[in-house]
Design brief:
Structural class: alpha+beta
Radius of gyration: 48 Å
Helix content: over 70%
Shape: rod-shaped
Strand content: 5-15%
Order of helices and strands: HEEHEHHEEEHH
CATH class of one domain: Alpha Beta
Number of strands: 6
CATH superfamily of one domain: ATP synthase, E subunit, C-terminal
Oligomer: single chain
Strand order of the largest sheet: 4-3-5-6
Amino acid sequence: MSDEGVDKIISHIEAEAEKEISEILLKAQAEADKISNAAQEKAEREAERILSNGKRVASLEGQRIIAETRIDVRRKKMDAQEEAIAASFEEAKKALEELAEKGKRDNLVYKDIMFDLIASASEVVAGNKLELVFNQRDSKTFNKEMLREASELVKKRSGRDISLALTDETIQYLGGVVVRDMEKQVEVDNTLETRLNRLKESIRVDVAKILFGDRL
């Protein structure tokens, strides 16, 4: 075979080799692009997932902070209301103390209130002979004439022929009275502090509405 024939064969082989190499390179590039695109998409999806999770976590954290803030504000509001309500009852207690000591405050007369407390308690305690127990101040000022007036009111209110008697025993209260039977088995505490405490829970909502209106 001549050198010219050999050169042709070599040239043909080189051409085929270059073609094959080119095809391999194209396939490799295509595969590389495919892998690169897939990786890019995966990276973008991962980035989106992380961002979405971050937004969700941030949203949940924001909601938690808002919820805690609302609870804290409500708690502080309730604490302030309770302080105001407690202060209003403390003022009521001071007013009752002044009424009991001076005998009169505004349009209230302590004697009339005392008679009403005696009568309402006497309606509950059974028996026709009842004892009245006062604090030290009232035990000195509650004289026989007042005892007679109170007895008449009790008879009128209860419809029973009840006899009232004073006792030397005294109680440590601002004012008011404890009414009991002679055997000391049943008694009704109608002292000012006890009556105020009884009313405290029942009128708490009303006091709060007066103080705060619709802001409860």
